[in-house]
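Handoff note, outgoing to incoming analyst
You'll be picking up this chain. Sequence as last confirmed:
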Amino acid sequence: MPRPARTDPRVDLAITAACCVAAFLCLVFPATARNSAAAKLRGSLVAPLAALQEKAELSRRSFLGHDAAVQIADSVTLRSLRLVGVEEENERLRRLLGLASAVKWGFIPAEALQGRGLGDETTITLSAGKFAGVEPLSPVVVSEGLVGMVERVDNSLSLAIIWPHPDFRVSAMTADGVAFGIVRAHPGQGASRYLLELQGVPLRAQLKPGTLVVASGLGGVYPKGVPIGTILQEIKTPEGYARSYLVRPAVRLQDVTSVMIVRPARVRAGIENVWARAAAGDSAIKGVVAAGDSARRDSVRREASRRDSVRRDSVRKDSLKRDTLRRVP
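Most recent structure output, in case you need it:
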């Protein structure tokens, strides 16, 4: 199908002739007449075209600015999502460093290489073994409290049972020493299987929700004073000579990435007040970090204020430019 002509060739020829005549007249007329004609053309024909071009340029800037703002917002959102995990991991590492500083000796740092849903959720593999000095029956702890106990040791790796394991047992007591008992995994269904159970509490000891439960140190495996969890509620059992309580674990297993394996010699030497000192040191570290965060926020606010000032100056210059173009005759 042939392409239709946009205009009549005679119209194009007439426009060309008119342009040639106008160009000849501009050459013939004196400068004052040419300037007067040019001023009239600028005021009648060129001014709307200049205003249209200005609006098009502003629209282009607006589109480009919107795209840039969207890219910046997306980048900030992505970095925020990444930083949340990084900050939480840094916070856990700071607390673990505070615990290591309080323990001072007799421990082996290790990484939890698997677990938390990767395979058997009642055990974890640790990145330290015989070559690092790990021994069976060594307690595994983090800054929040007790994780479990080393069960098997290889040359470079070791396997530890964690508190949901059916064989997990620890002699426990309340932090104030009022009641003693045995903590084990709660044999429940659903979400309750991720809780612990404190058994064998004397009838005279009625524990309130929120009471801290720690290892008693009896048996010589777990260090005295290491946090285990907090009391949730009393549960009914067939035994009429003792009470049982549900306990919320102090350690969230999904957050366990770096741990400390405490050597039996250090357990026997006693680390009863270590977690209290580590908590105090962690508070001091938080104070320093908070001061640094405050200084950083002030710097960010000053930078944002400076950028707003520059943006306002740019908008003011654009406004003056538009007013100047409108006043051109």
